Amino acid sequence: AKAAHFDWKGRLRSFLDGRSELSSQQVASHEHCDLGQWYYADGAQRFGGNAEFTAIEGPHREIHQVIRQVVEAKERGDVRAAEQGYQRVEALSDEVVACLDRLAKSLA
Asked: Are 97 and 2 in contact (CB under 8 A)?
């Protein structure tokens, strides 16, 4: 899950820097990405009552919304808004990773 977030940050940065293409349609919903598929299926069954687990949902949902906004801002030429959104993506990604770390620690 952590690797997927790091990959997305790199993919988004590459798009903003003009090194790759990305469309808002390519941005999966928070329910259909790798983390979301685990979270709403196996994860929910195994850890649904764990506060560290439930803390993941908010920032994970928001990161997908913001990634889509970043892509749309870049598509319309609003580089400033895209870069501001990217900063938010970085913060949310760090938050999701911290939540995953806390979950792992609570289960150890």
From this structure: yes
C-beta separation of 24 from 68 below 8 A: yes
Residue ranges and CATH numbers for the domains of the chain are 2-16+27-107 (1.20.120)
Residue 29 phi, psi (nearest 5) = -70, 165
CA distance 34 to 80: 29
Number of Cβ within 10 Å of residue 108's Cβ equals: 5
Q: What is the DSSP letter of 51?
A: H
What pLDDT digit, counting tens, does each position of 30-89 carry?
A: 998 889 999 999 999 999 999 999 999 999 999 999 999 999 999 999 999 999 999 999
d(CA 108, CA 100): 12
- How much is the pTM? 0.89
